[in-house]
Specification:
Helix content: 40-55%
Oligomer: single chain
Number of helices: 10
Number of domains: 3
Number of strands: 10
CATH topology of the largest domain: Butyryl-CoA Dehydrogenase, subunit A, domain 3
Distance between the termini: 39 Å
CATH superfamily of the largest domain: Butyryl-CoA Dehydrogenase, subunit A, domain 3
Order of helices and strands: HHHHHEEEEEEEEHEEHHHH
CATH class of the largest domain: Mainly Alpha
Radius of gyration: 21 Å
Mean pLDDT: 97
Low-confidence stretches: none
Bound molecules: acetoacetyl-coenzyme A
CATH architecture of the largest domain: Up-down Bundle
Length: about 375
């Protein structure tokens, strides 16, 4: 419970997401993780619930709600299964959002509509084997050739890569100009010349898929360019500002799940003839876990509200992601500690939450990148 009031609509979406997550996702989460199986059926159901394009206007196939509704729903989904959550997060934040914000009317009709309805799935392809944090140094090239760009290069760490139908792709149209020549495209995955490369075996979020995408002479029509040539870096950064709110929310969901498990275990487990929650050593951990989660959630909600109010939210999104992801890592570590030896086994979900938490400190900008973004904004405020 929070003092921050939600509208009836926001409350409703949170309730729907909570019921769905609790009843349909949570019972499958351990199995999906163990088998590393993509949750295709759950993604279909999320589409039916309108979760794959929550804040996209209804005229473009979305739910017509706001970013706060999105993070409320996403937290609930991630509380049950962080893998299922990231599929939803990428489709909303990193694919539907940039097409809505930067796409032409034709692109919105052709691509946004089916993506926001969840009839198609999207992925975001920026990072490369040798360019992650330094996104301005990407080497995938797009060379204009009459009505096409010819794309060559290898992309890494693409969430949804194997399953996606549509790729938001970042290329360079002039390698000598670094970020000034980054150019974005909306690419049909079935275009000849696209190969799904190595599919990663991961520590956590094992039910979501992450792969390389290899572009080998792939011809992308000019009308599929997203924004002008050279504006791709800004499109990527502004898209990631929104994406970081989603990952913050994912981290809050993971941390909340770990706290819920830790409290319930501390009530059932006895030591020295009493339930372990009686011990201050446990209580202090629970208190710190709950406090950090609450602070994280408020940061996420603040960033979401600022996005909804069309305010500049770069700093707040980075703060929300940084604090929530480090909280998720800290809270899940404590949750295992409270479970003792059992927490270290796959008999309890605590270890899954711990493994899932780690990625939130890495993808969509590492914690170190978030600190750079925050520091840049803070220093600007004092200049
Ligand atoms: N909004 C709008 N414009 C922005 C911006 C923002 N948030 N951030 C930077 N810019 C603009 C700057 O104003 C600047 O513009 P000018 O050229 O007009 O001056 C330009 O972009 C370059 O900015 P910088 O000089 O700050 O760029 P940089 O090269 O130093 O990089 C960075 C800055 C913050 C480190 C950036 O590279 C970055 O965010 N790196 C991390 C990338 C990242 O998050 N990758 C994750 C990929 S997605 C993923 O994880 C996989 C998945 O599937 C989920």
């Amino acid at each position: 419970m929070s003092i921050i009031e939600l509208t009836d609509e926001q409350q409703m979406i949170q309730d729907v997401a909570r019921d769905f997550a609790e009843n349909e996702i949570k019972p499958l989460a351990s199995e999906l993780d163990r088998e590393g199986r993509f949750p295709a059926d759950l993604v279909k159901k999320m589409a039916e619930l309108g979760f794959m394009g929550i804040f996209i206007p209804e005229e473009y196939g979305g739910g017509g709600m706001d970013t706060l509704s999105y993070v409320l729903a996403l937290e609930e989904i991630c509380k049950a299964c962080a893998s299922t959550g990231v599929v939803m997060s990428v489709n909303n934040s990193l694919v539907a959002d940039p097409i809505y914000r930067f796409g032409t009317e034709e692109q919105k009709k052709k691509y946004l509509l089916p993506l926001a309805k969840g009839e198609k799935l999207g992925c975001f392809s920026l990072s490369e084997p040798a360019a992650g944090s330094d996104a301005g140094s990407i080497k995938t090239t797009a060379v204009k050739n009459r009505e096409y760009y010819i794309v060559n290069g290898t992309k890494n760490w693409v969430t949804n890569g194997p399953e996606a139908d549509v790729i938001i792709l970042f290329t360079s149209t002039d390698l000598s100009k670094r970020h000034h020549a980054v150019t974005a495209f909306i690419v049909d995955k079935e275009t000849p010349g696209i190969i799904v490369g190595k599919v990663e075996h991961k520590l956590g979020i094992r039910a979501s898929s992450t792969s390389q995408l290899i572009f080998d002479g792939c011809r992308v029509p000019i009308e599929n360019r997203l924004g002008e040539e050279g504006l791709g870096f800004k499109i990527a950064m502004q898209t990631l500002d929104g994406g970081r709110i989603g990952i913050g929310s994912q981290a809050v969901g993971i941390a909340q799940a770990a706290l819920d498990e830790a409290v319930s275990y501390s009530k059932e487990r006895e030591a020295f003839s009493q339930p372990i929650y009686n011990f201050q050593g446990i209580q202090f951990m629970l208190a710190d876990m709950a406090t950090r989660i609450e602070a994280s959630r408020l940061l996420v909600w603040q960033a979401a509200r600022m996005k909804d109010r069309k305010m500049k939210f770069t700093k707040q999104a980075a703060m929300a992601k940084l604090f929530a992801s480090e909280t998720a890592m800290w809270v899940t570590t404590k949750a295992i500690q409270i479970h003792g030896g059992y927490g270290y086994t796959t008999d309890y979900p605590a270890e899954r939450h711990f493994r899932d938490a780690k990625i939130t400190e890495i993808y969509e900008g590492t914690s170190e990148i978030q600190r750079i973004v925050i520091a840049n904004q803070v220093l600007k405020e004092y200049s």
